[in-house]
Amino acid sequence: MKEIEINQILDEAREMGASDLHFTAGLPPTVRLNGKIQKLKGYPDCTEPIMISVINSITAIKQKQVIQKGDDADFAYVSASGMRHRVNVFRQRGYHAIAFRLLLNEIPTLLDLNLPALLGEFAMAPRGLVLVTGPTGSGKSTTLAAMVDHINRVKNCHIITIEDPIEYIHTHKQSMVNQREIHSDVDSFGSALRAALREDPDVILVGEMRDFETINAAVTAAETGHLVLSTLHTTGAAETLNRIIDVYPPHSQGQCRAQLANIVVGVVSQTLIPTKDGRNRVAALEIMAMTDAIASLIRDGKTYQIPNSISTGRAKGMFTLDQNLAQLTALGIVSKEEALERCQDRREYERILTG
After folding, report:
1. Up-side HSE of residue 23: CA atoms within 13 Å toward CB?
2. Which residues pair with 101 in a beta bridge?
3. DSSP for residue 46
4. Which end of the chain has the lower number of beta carbons within 10 A, N or C?
5. Nearest 10 degrees: Cα torsion 267, 343, 247, 301
6. Tally of CA atoms within 13 A in the half-sphere of 258 that contains its CB
7. d(Cα 26, Cα 337) in Å, to the nearest integer?
8. What's the pLDDT at 223?
9. If we measure between CA atoms, which residue out of 109, 95, 92 comes closest to residue 147?
C-alpha cells in the first residue's frame, strides 16, 4: 500500500488529468476524471486519523480553528510543486472529508478554452453586469478568469476581484489587479463590494452572488458605471434573471427588472460534457447578449420568452443550450445520449439536430 502523502497524491491526480481529488471515510483517495468518479489504486481506505493528518498538513492556524469549531472551511492550497488548489473541508456522519479542485497556474485564454469571441466583447464593455452561470464544476471560475485576463492584457484599468478563496493569481499587465480573499482580506462579499466602490475600480469580479446583500451591491456597482463580472448556480439566461429578481421583496421586483434591463451586458450559461471518445470534457454553452427586445421582455416580466429571442439571435452571436448541444452532436464531439441528458427541451434539440 502506498503512503498517503498529500503533495504526492495531488501530483498524481494532476498527471492523470483529474479535475478534483476527494478524501472521505471508507474510500481510498478518489478523483474526478472526465466527469466520472474513480478510486486511486494502491492507497488504503481513508480513516479519521488519515484525514486529520492531511488537514493538518494543508492548513494554517486560522483554518484549523474554523475546522475545530465544526465549521466548513474554504481556502487555497499551494502544493510542494507550486500548483494551486481550491480546498473545502467539511464533516459528514461525524467524520471529516476534504475536496480539492485542481487549478491551473497559467490562466487559459478565451481561445484556449474554445469560447466564442462574444465573451471577449462582454469583457470589453465599459460598464454593466456580465454573468457566467452553471452547475458546480462547470468551469465558471475558469471562464471568468479568462475574461479578466483578457481585460488585463488589452485594457488600461483597475480590476478588483473578490473571491472565496482566490483561485487564479492575476499579475499586473496593462491593468492593475487587486485580489481580495473572503475571511483573509475582508469579511464578506457584501462588505467587500461596498468598500470596492471607494477603491476606484473600473472592473469588479465577484466570485459568487450568494445572497440578497451581495446581489444588491453588485447591481448598484453596475449601475454606478462599473463593469461587474459574477457567477450564479443557475441554468439558462431566463432562470438566472428570475433568480436575481426573486431575491428582492415583491414591492421592489418591478424596480429590479428595470435595473437589470439597463445594466445586463450578457449571460453565459455553461455545462461540461464528456467528449464522445471519453478522453476529455467540452463546454456546452447558452449565450444571451442584451438587445432592445430582450430588455423589453425583462421590464415587462416576460423572461419566459427570452429563449425564443436567443434562438433567433444568431446574427448577434447568441444561441441556446439546445442549439449548441445539437451542433456538438452533429460535429461528433459529444454523444447524443450525453446531450439528451443536459438539453432543456428534448423535442427542440431533436428538431434542431434533424433540421
Report:
1. 27
2. 20, 86
3. B
4. C
5. 80
6. 4
7. 32
8. 96
9. 109
Query: Distance between CA 158 and CA 99 in Å, rounded?
Result: 33
Q: Residue 64 burial (CB < 10 Å; 0-12/13-18/19+)?
A: middle
> Strands 176-181, 158-163: parallel, antiparallel or unpaired by DSSP?
parallel
Return d(Cα 43, Cα 101) in angstroms, integer: 20
174-193 pLDDT, tens digit each: 999 999 999 889 999 999 99
Structure confidence at residue 56 (pLDDT) = 96
User: Domains (ranges, CATH) in the chain?
Assistant: 6-102 (3.30.450.90), 117-354 (3.40.50.300)
Write the Ramachandran bin of 128: left for phi over 0, alpha for psi from -120 to 50, otherwise beta: left
Per-residue pLDDT tens over the stretch 30-43: 999 988 899 999 99
Residues contacting residue 354 through CB under 8 Å, at least 6 positions apart: none
Helices H / strands E in the chain, number of each = 14, 13
Cell of 249: 421583496
C-beta neighbour count of 228 within 10 angstroms: 27
Give the pLDDT confidence of 50-90 residue by residue, as tens digits: 999 999 999 999 899 999 999 999 999 999 999 999 999 99
Element (H, E) at 92: strand 84-92
Helix, strand, coil % in the chain, rounded to nearest 5: 40, 25, 35
Condensed to tens digits (0 to 9), the pLDDT of residues 79-130 reads 999 999 999 999 999 999 999 999 988 999 999 999 999 999 999 999 999 9
Nearest partner of 102 among 13, 191, 216, 195, judged by Cα: 13
What pLDDT band is residue 221 in, cutting at 50, 70 and 90? very high
**For all residues of the chain together, what is the average pLDDT?**
95
Instruction: Give the per-residue pLDDT at 136.
Output: 86
| Spatial separation of the C-alpha atoms in residues 272 and 32, rounded to whole Å | 13
pTM above 0.85, yes or no: yes
How far apart CA 81 and CA 67 sit, in angstroms, is 25
